[in-house]
Structure formats: C-alpha cells, structure tokens
C-alpha cells in the first residue's frame, strides 16, 4: 500500500474585519503542505488535469503542485484557504490517490 504524508507543514493567518454596523468577521487562512509519492501523481492530476481542476472547484481551495525537494521522490502539494476549504481539498486529494491505486 502506498502512503502519503499529511501536515508536513502548516501555517495559519487570522484576519479580523470590522464593519460600520459593529459586526466583526474573522477569516482564518490555512496552508498545508502534503507530500505525495511521484508514482501516484497521475491520480492527483487526472486525465488532462480534470481531477486537479475538480479538487480546486469543489473545495474552493488554492492548490499548487511543486517539484520534489532534492534527494526525494515526493511531490509537494500546497493547499491554502479557509480551514473548511483545506480540509475538503485534503479529503478529495486522498480520494483521488486511493482511487488510482490497484
């Protein structure tokens, strides 16, 4: 069974917005780096990038894929957005990887 790592790195930014009506909105932005083995990267992209596009559209998160660090064979997937968006994107990413394994 192929394994992939979650929460290699995580950062959060909190933004507080005040309106003239006295209401306060707090928006948290989270970034998660996930290490994905190169051999399952095709399942992440999907045919012509369809899985990656669906992941972005459904979750609402920003998703970027970076080259492996020197000396490793794991691709870095960076997901950022609200906590709900990043969680949804992580779940979809895991589902795409698991569906591509035989």
From TrEMBL:
The keyword Repeat applies. It comes from the Eukaryota. Gene3D superfamilies: K Homology domain, type 1 (3.30.1370.10). GO terms for molecular function: RNA binding. Residues 28-98 form the K Homology domain. Keywords: Repeat, RNA-binding. InterPro entries: KH_dom (IPR004087), KH_dom_type_1 (IPR004088), KH_dom_type_1_sf (IPR036612). This is K Homology domain-containing protein. It comes from Coptis chinensis. The lineage of its organism: Eukaryota, Viridiplantae, Streptophyta, Embryophyta, Tracheophyta.
């Amino acid at each position: 069974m192929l394994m992939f790592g979650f929460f290699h790195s995580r950062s959060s930014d909190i933004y507080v917005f005040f309106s003239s009506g006295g209401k306060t909105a707090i928006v948290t932005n989270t970034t998660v780096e996930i290490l994905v083995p190169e051999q399952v990267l095709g399942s992440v992209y999907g045919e012509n990038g369809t899985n990656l596009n669906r992941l972005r559209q459904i979750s609402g998160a920003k998703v970027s894929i970076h080259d492996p660090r020197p000396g490793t064979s794991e691709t870095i997937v960076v997901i950022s957005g609200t906590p709900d968006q990043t969680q949804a994107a992580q779940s979809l990413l895991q589902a795409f990887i698991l569906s591509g394994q035989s």
